[in-house]
Amino acid sequence: MNSLDQAEDLKAFERRLTEYIACLQPATGRWRMILIVVSVCTATGAWNWLIDPETQKVSFFTSLWNHPFFTISCITLIGLFFAGIHKRVVAPSIIAARCRTVLAEYNMSCDDTGKLILKPRPHVQG
Fold first, then answer.
1. Is 47 among the domain residues?
2. What keywords sit in the KW lines (predicted)?
3. Is 63 part of any domain?
């Protein structure tokens, strides 16, 4: 394989990697917004639950029953974490990090968008 073919292969790999990471960005943004909204709802509900004087007077389950907004948002947040939202909000970073690990063996790396970074070859002195 000559150097021209190798350069074309690298360009094709880079194009595909940047395309794949760019394709993940819209979904990642939506998952981040969902996580932010549910987290804010849970925090707001928790605040209202904690400042309610009735919370201290009744049982735990009764206090949760009296605050359905907090209960539902908390259950939703827990469900989102069980569904893997913590991985979905950082998916492009995970892909880039795994590519960097593999590319390091070939004196290359990539940025967070998938652009290849060619590192200089180490000079062997003999």
1. yes
2. Cytoplasm, Lipid metabolism, Membrane, Nucleus, Transmembrane, Transmembrane helix
3. yes
| Structural domains of the chain, count | 1
Query: Residue 46 CB: number of other CB atoms within 10 A?
Result: 15
3-state secondary structure of 109: strand
Beta bridge partners, 118, equal 108
| Residue 124 covered by a domain | no
Global pTM reads 0.76
What separation in angstroms does the CA of 14 have from each of 57, 81, 87, 126? 62, 32, 23, 34
Count H helices, E strands: the chain?
Answer: 6, 2
CA distances from 66 to 46, 53, 72, 76, 99 (A): 12, 12, 12, 17, 49
Rounded CA separation 93/21 (Å): 9
Tens digits of per-residue pLDDT, 68-102? 999 999 999 999 999 999 999 999 999 999 999 99
Give the number of other CB atoms < 10 A from CB of residue 109.
16
Enclosing domain of residue 75:
3-118
